[in-house]
Amino acid sequence: MFFIIDILGTIAFAISGVLVALNKRMDAFGILIIAFVTAIGGGTLRDLLIGNTPVSWMLNMTYVYVVIGSTVIAIVLRSKIDYLRTHLFLFDTIGIGLYTLIGIDKGLGAGLHPIICIALGTMTACFGGVIRDILCNEIPVVFRKEIYATACIMGGVSYFLLRKLPIQEDYVFLGSGLIVIVLRLLAVRFKISLPSFYRDEVS
Amino acid sequence: MFFIIDILGTIAFAISGVLVALNKRMDAFGILIIAFVTAIGGGTLRDLLIGNTPVSWMLNMTYVYVVIGSTVIAIVLRSKIDYLRTHLFLFDTIGIGLYTLIGIDKGLGAGLHPIICIALGTMTACFGGVIRDILCNEIPVVFRKEIYATACIMGGVSYFLLRKLPIQEDYVFLGSGLIVIVLRLLAVRFKISLPSFYRDEVS
Amino acid sequence: MFFIIDILGTIAFAISGVLVALNKRMDAFGILIIAFVTAIGGGTLRDLLIGNTPVSWMLNMTYVYVVIGSTVIAIVLRSKIDYLRTHLFLFDTIGIGLYTLIGIDKGLGAGLHPIICIALGTMTACFGGVIRDILCNEIPVVFRKEIYATACIMGGVSYFLLRKLPIQEDYVFLGSGLIVIVLRLLAVRFKISLPSFYRDEVS
Questions:
Q1: Coil, strand, or helix at residue B79?
Q2: At a CB cut-off of 8 Å and minimum separation 6, what does A188 contact?
Q3: Which site among A29, A83, A133 would you substitute to test the C interface, given the most C Cβ atoms closer than 10 Å to its Cβ?
Q4: Which of B45, B140, C192, C193 is least crowded, fewest Cβ atoms below 10 Å from its Cβ?
């Protein structure tokens, strides 16, 4: 079950990378790298920061094959991919729910403070997109719009709150993952975003 | 004493990140990440390169709290922060003096060559700002203007020269830290900057 | 022999960094950092991902001296460097051939899958340039033009194919290194590049 969500999330992330790279007129190599970085960049940064090397994707070829396959299919079907937009959005949203929890789990495994674990979860879910945007010479979209990272942080906080209740570990995972997903869906549905505090008075 | 300088430096770095992020119209999450990266990015890169993981800030929550606190206060007081510009500049300058020495110390602890130690010191002091600028889609300001990194390099060189003299370790630290601070103050006061060798003849 | 190629490659990479930094009007510190990152960035990223820390260049001062020397010479001779363009192109091309093999070798040493080893080889050869372009606020040129990375990937694939034949290890290295070099030369000579699949129909 977790495995299927993980793969669907990886596919959604890789395809989102392909779409950005196509619009930047990159060649086939560039598209593959951007797809790869979007799908596994967050987990890679997390692994580097906690010293979990070689990083995860080097030891599990599944991700590599899934990203390469998704990239080839997305390139071939590029003119039809708009029809899948809603599905991809759902996969992506479910993906960040799971990735947040994977990041928290790795942080707990390394004996780190809950706040650091939540940061690692958010990083796992969001920083693939950050690295994608940097490689594409854009200010990361997650820093500017939508409650994307915030949903991950809220889900992470919920995880540590739910853990204090007399609930089975599985339900704690399920509950906090769902909170990420529901917050993200609500934010997109009702166009909720964080304040930006831009100072007009500044030169 | 060192601890207070470290905290003041962290505050100055975090606030400088907040100001850049505000001008880039980032949302609250983006502002927090930029503040964080500016304050702890240099030390994080240093820790990664020498294999010191989990990286320092994951093991010491003080930095996390200081950055979050500074960010909230800087956002709230954003219209008044210009009045603090001189104080922030001083904290920042004292901060890079200390950070240079912390980086050198970590390099020595890993048994590395003095040149590498000086590079690690400069990285600790300057690369938070470099990562901040990359995330904000700017060419890093430290590569273009002001004797900022150069002050750190000079302070690092002084450290290894002073160590050869019959001086107590504490005074070696103090002396080379002061050299960083004084050079930076002089460079800003007299608008000294490095040459840039731009070639007009190049197409 | 390998050592000389390695040094020539490092010189070519460092000078390519200097040229980009000069055109971006960076100061002396910026130029040095860009030269350094171009020359050793790919190997550094590889070392970080496989957990080989402190990263290679911190333990072998040769690279540091070669980069600093190349940078100083390139700045001094900047108005004459166009005459060396063909030599630099050759050094660079031979360099990526060797770097690809060094990356593969490190991957094998860490017991990683052949596909990961090829990725590490390509990373060693190409990602110094990627980091250089990010620091200079450009979309990495290797993602957009020329069969550069592709030559490295083909060379890497050849390495694993040739290894299955009853050929001495030395000749396997030589053969696959030559494939990288010849493919790159052919691609530049005949202006071959990868397709980019840019979608005009996308808004």
A1: coil
A2: A89, A146
A3: A29
A4: C192
pLDDT at C200 over 80: no
Q: How far is CA B43 from CA A184, A198, B15, B53, B177, in A?
A: 33, 29, 17, 11, 17
Total domains, chain B:
1
pLDDT band of residue C203 (cuts 50, 70, 90) is very low
Could you tell me if C134 lies within 8 Å of chain A, comparing CB atoms?
yes
Going by the DSSP 8-state scheme, the letter that residue B54 receives in this structure is: S
Report how far apart, in Å, the C-alpha atoms of B53 and of each of A53, B46, C13, C59 are: 10, 10, 30, 19
| B22: Cα separation from own chain's centroid | 20
Does A202 reside within a domain?
no
Enclosing domain of residue C81: 2-139
Sign of CA dihedral A101, A105, A106, A112: positive
pLDDT (mean) for A44-62 = 92
The sign of the CA dihedral B109, B44, C56, B113 is negative
Name every chain B residue with its beta carbon within 8 A of the beta carbon of A139: 24, 26, 135-137
Whether B200 maps to a domain, the answer reads no
Q: Return d(Cα B87, Cα C166) in angstroms, integer.
A: 71
Query: Residue B34 — pLDDT band, cuts 50, 70, 90?
Result: very high
Chain C within 8 Å of B196 (Cβ-Cβ)?
yes
pLDDT tens-digit series, residues B76-114? 888 777 777 777 788 888 888 889 999 999 999 999 999
Token digits of residue C55:
């990263």
Q: Is B194 contained in some domain?
A: no
Report whether B104 contacts B117 (CB < 8 A).
yes
Tell me if C199 is assigned to some domain. no
Q: Compute the average pLDDT of residues A38-49.
A: 94
Q: CA C138, CA B134: separation in Å to the nearest integer?
A: 11
Tell me how far apart the alpha carbons of residues A42 and C117 are, in angstroms, rounded to a whole number.
21
